[in-house]
Amino acid sequence: MDITEQKQVQEKLQESEARYKAILSAIPDLMFRISRDGEYLDLKSEGANVTLDREEIVGKNLQELLPSDVAAISQEAIAKTLDSGSLQTCEYQLATPLGIRDYEARLVVSGQDEILAIVRDITERKQAEIALQNFAQKFAKAFSCSPDSITISTLKEGRFIEVNDTFVKLSGYERHEAIGKTSFDLNLWVNASDRLKLIQELQATGVIRNLEIEFKQKSGKIITTLLSAEVIDLDGIPSLLAVHHDITERKQVEAKLRLCAQRDRLLAETLVRIRSSLNLEEILQTTVNEVRQFLQADRVFIGLYNANSGIKTLAESVDPKYPSVYGWSTNDEDYIQELRNFLKDNVVRVVEDMTQMPQSSKVRVHCQKFQTRASLAVPIMLNEELFGALIANQCSAPRNWQPIEIDLLQQMSEQVAIAIHQSRIYQELAQLNINLEHQVRERTAQLQQKIQEVEELHRLKDVVLHTVTHDLRTSVMGNLMVLKNLFNQGVGTGDWGLGTAEQRSTGAQEQRGSRDVTASFSPLSPPIPKPLPHSHAPSPMPYAQSPIPVSRSIIERMIQGNDRQLTMINSLLEINSCEKEGLEIKPEVVKFSTLLKGIFAQLEPMLTQNQATLKNLVRADLPLVMADATRLQKVVAHLVTHSLQNNPPGLNFTLSTSVEAGMIRTQIQDDGVGMSKSECDRLFDLHVRDPQDCCSTSIGLKMYLCRQVIKAHGGEIGVINNRKRGLTFWFTLPLATASAINRS
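^ that's the sequence the OP posted. Answer follows.
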């Protein structure tokens, strides 16, 4: 029997069966053969993520293995598949060792009253779908509730597909007015070229972030937004997702801040100009230039009022396209009064549209002549006085003047008022200065004349002082010579008359034992000179003459009086010479302790006669000083004499020194009577002391000379009232420098 054909059919069947098994093995899904009544006929679980025991499945019914709800869904799907002969799908969840899993079953007819069910685990897909749904819901909420305007439009035409509520509020267009329309249909672009730039940028980079663009609202108002956009695919159509963040308010605030900063700078610069310049014309012109630039106005000018000349424009900055008002003036009282009424009570006059402002025919003609459409005027006031006005004009169109612009003009008008007031003061000062200069010249001439007169008086004073003091000195010295000769020759022991030669001899011996009053008063007074050849002093009385009825005490007082006069005359001559030619000293490098020791050695007789003691605390190792020994000897003698003459006998002195700050300080302290602070302060001044003090004038002159001597050395001198009793005289002298020591 020829079975070739049969063998071929079997081979083909085996090949088909092998391919079928290979396909089934490659499918990673579970496969079940199920009868109409729900019995599992066969299964394939290899390759799936769940391993099932064949014996536990085959022969069992759906109702036995699946939850009732899942079994019912599966039974219904089997019936539909067999009845319709078409593919049916169903989804369900099952509890597994891995947790609740989602499955999808695809059912096809596989035989008589049986189906093939391909079951796939779709848990991950279901989770992704849920996440996508959640994302979509969130996106929808973000889209609709976003505070920023969000639009979806076609990339090619810009036709709106979707817009959110914020877009409706921002643009002014309702949703139904925008959907299906392009941005050009809605006239949103202020600059049409901006969209072309936007598309080019998107094509180059695919994204745009915070691009600042201006848009026009439905009302025509311009707003500024920051645009961020990306290209998205919407059902295969390239679309544009755009987000607009409105920054109009922020831009307005920034612009206002810039204007405020510019205003403050302008005010500060104006203030500096006013303070640094007195040129009023320059200040006014610079002011109008700066104000016009700030306001971007067509014209800014300053008009000043003068009671004599009326109103006149003194400074102006104007756009060349419009007429100039510079130099315009008027004396029309009615017109001036009307303008003054505009600014009465220091009120700003704001006119946004001249055509809507009631005004007189004169003002209307003036505005037409200079093409004024809007005006802002502020008065220039100071101390309730109206100087004029600072005025800004808009000639091209009406204008809405902003508060910051009004504020600027008000503050600038205050500065201009200060500048005008300052200029007036300067003019007054200039006139006063001219008058003052004239007065100064006159007074200078008078002063020069007075100086010449004073110089002449000083010259005459010097001549008189020189002549009188020399004549007085000659006369006094002559008197002293006569009186001392008489005193030395001896005076009668009685109250009156001269004695015999023997008595005169006895008187001379008494004189030698008596106290030398003249020496005790001033040990450094110049010796009594011999009679001058031409002196008018009387010659000594010869012994053979008749007795002279004079008392010994009177002669002694006459000697003391003439001695004081001679000392005073010598002091006056020395003071005059000092003031006229300066006190001349001849300082030398000396050892100060030795110098002081020598000075007080010469003063010893005077101290002894006055029963005074000296306690010397001066160290022997004192540094060298620069001093004129002769002058310094007189200073110390005068200080000691002052204490002796103002205290009874028995005075105690303490001499001490100290070195401080390159100076030697010498102190002569006594335990006598003290003085008040005011007396201490003026002791060394040139003045006449108490007239009751018989030695006041001479001592005052000597103390003044002491100060001049110490100052000539470069030191200071003074007196201190001791706390307990007595006075402390002190003076300072500079230490000798190294160069002076080397020279010596």
